[in-house]
Amino acid sequence: MQLSRLQVLRMAAGATLAGCNRTPSVKVASKNFSEQLFLGELYAQAMERSGLHVDRKFSLGSTQIAMEAMQRGGIDLYPEYTGTALLVILKRPVEYDPKTVYQTVKQAFETQYRMTWLKPSPFNNTQALGAMQETARRYDMRTLSDVGRAATQLRLAVTAEFLNRPDGLPALRRAYGGFNFKQIVQVDIGLRYQALIDKRADVAVAFTTDGEIDQYQLVVFDDDKHAFPPYQAAPVVRDDALQRFPGIAAALDAVTPLLDEATIRSVNLAINGPDKREPADVAREFLQKHPLG
Fold it and tell me: Does domain 25-124+231-289 bear CATH number 1.10.357.10?
């Protein structure tokens, strides 16, 4: 059936009106691992509670993909880590003071990308070394200095990446000297802790927010000479999104200071541990326990 000119005009007008009636939404993204999925959901739900509409764009595959989407305007914000921004995005030299790193990336992102770093969370998802409590007691190890002294008696479970990246084993050797282990046991990233449980290694590379630290009650050695750079998480937001949605900053600045390392470890354990909970449910429960007003 052929439509009359009047019918075509009415249909076009209706389509235009429908487009105009769409509620503008903040496009929130995350990378594709549990901690990022939780942070993305937490940001999204906090903004929804403040009255903003949110469009979720989760599980982006990498930092590069997230930044490309930000630069194109495909997303408005996502959680990023200060150390990742410094080393991977800006390709700057390693820095170790958390405040210096935050200010460096904040200023550079504003100048180069017209993006704003909001308040950082207290937790630091940096690299570490950990061991079973029995092993730590046997070798009297509490700090990385202690581990360095005992290294020739210890087997270290590591990923191949840790052996060569500037903030991995080379950083330990620069800061402490030594760290020549009895044996290097290379494992996939998901099998580091299993190597400790199976007694194939004495010490393993960890991230300080891993849920397995609580699950297995591991000792994480104090980085007493500050070999590892800081990786604080914060929302990174396009400046034009802050202008279009003035409530973003207040909503996220209210929630990010609540996230310390103990909290994030429990979150990661809830998502990755035996219960296998959904990040959205964990974020919702967190906000129920911490009303934002």
Answer: no
Q: Is 140 exposed, middle or buried (0-12, 13-18, 19+ CB in 10 A)?
A: exposed
Q: Is the pTM of this model over 0.85?
A: yes
Per-domain residue ranges of the chain: 25-124+231-289, 127-220
Cα angle: 186, vertex 83, 264; to 5 degrees: 75
Return the CATH superfamily for domain 127-220. Answer: Osmoprotection protein (prox); domain 2 (3.40.190.120)
Per-residue pLDDT of the chain (293 residues; tens, 9 = 90+): 444 554 444 544 444 444 445 799 999 999 999 999 999 999 999 999 999 999 999 999 899 999 999 999 999 999 999 999 999 899 999 899 999 999 999 999 999 999 999 999 999 999 999 999 999 999 999 999 999 999 999 999 999 989 988 789 999 999 999 999 999 999 998 899 999 999 999 999 999 999 999 999 999 999 999 999 999 999 999 999 999 999 999 999 999 999 999 999 999 999 999 999 999 999 999 999 998 76
- The torsion angle over the Cα atoms of residues 102, 104, 107 and 111, rounded to 10 degrees, is -130
3-state secondary structure 150-215: HHHHCEEEECHHHHHCCCCHHHHHHHHCCCCCCEEEECCHHHHHHHHHCCCCCEEEEECCCCHHHH
